[in-house]
Design goal:
The protein has 287 residues and is an alpha/beta fold. It is built from seven helices and nine strands; from the N terminus they run αααββαβαβαββαβββ. The two termini are 13 Å apart. The structure holds S-adenosyl-L-homocysteine (SAH). The site of S-adenosyl-L-homocysteine has 25 residues, from strand 2, helix 5 and strand 4.
Amino acid sequence: MSESKHEPKKRFPLTLDALTGDAGRKRASMSSRSNSPQTASQNAARYAPPERSATASRPPAGAPLLIERAPNSSMVSEAVRKAMVARIAQQGVKDPQVLAAMEAVPRHFFLEPGLASQAYIDASLPIGYHQTISQPYIVARMIEVLKAGARQPMKRVLEIGTGCGYQAAVLAQVATEVYSIERIKPLHELARANLRALRIPNLRLHYGDGMLGFPQLAPFDGIILAAAGLQVPPGLLDQLSVGGRLIAPVGSRDQVLQLICRIGENEWTTETLEHCHFVPLRPGTHG
Ligand code: SAH
């Protein structure tokens, strides 16, 4: 968390003032090109844009304050997104608030124009720097598990591994305050650029090592990791409120989702859920 302490207040809420010259974002043409889900690492390796700039994929200005109807969102993208949500529901995600959040956030905003046509297939996709945007189903599933049994609405949630910012945007639809940490600076900046036009006032992004959590803001009702470690970093467990829940992929090649609940001052329970595929959790920062 090297820099989070010094994060200037003016970064939040995200403003439109720095938005200039971004009319060039190509609208996703929502073809239903099929692409079977692959592992996050395979997908991350498949594509690495050579000189990715944080401003390259900014959506245009003019968004409403809430993501009721996202800017640059066409009827076509809304229809394809509805179909994605229907598939997620078929796969077993039931929480209506989570499904509504998945429907509200335009996933194609978070991808390079060349990949935007694949935004609503159920697969992780590369975002550069050997990282991926998570598979829609797993985003929905993890948020549903995090929410279930937590006090409603979840007040303060921490995400580790912002990537392009997609999951953070979804989380911000279901929690009062969301903080998200990314260790790769250009990705942190990319997420800020991607999120700017959506103007999500309850989401704050930080550049730093999320393995250390965010002690200054703890405790959290929920902590969600978007990258897999061999274990959940122990420091994060103390940053859960009593009654708080943490969900994380754990493992290297063979990964499972783990749900950890803090049930007392010094008592946690651990439950193993389904198999999953995430990019690795790494220590330190990468400028
Ligand atoms: N949340 C993303 C998924 C991003 S992929 C989504 O919306 O789809 C996982 C991200 O975790 C990568 O960007 C990677 O750089 C980041 N990451 C890995 N280890 C980290 C750490 N220790 N702290 C913060 N971010 C980390």
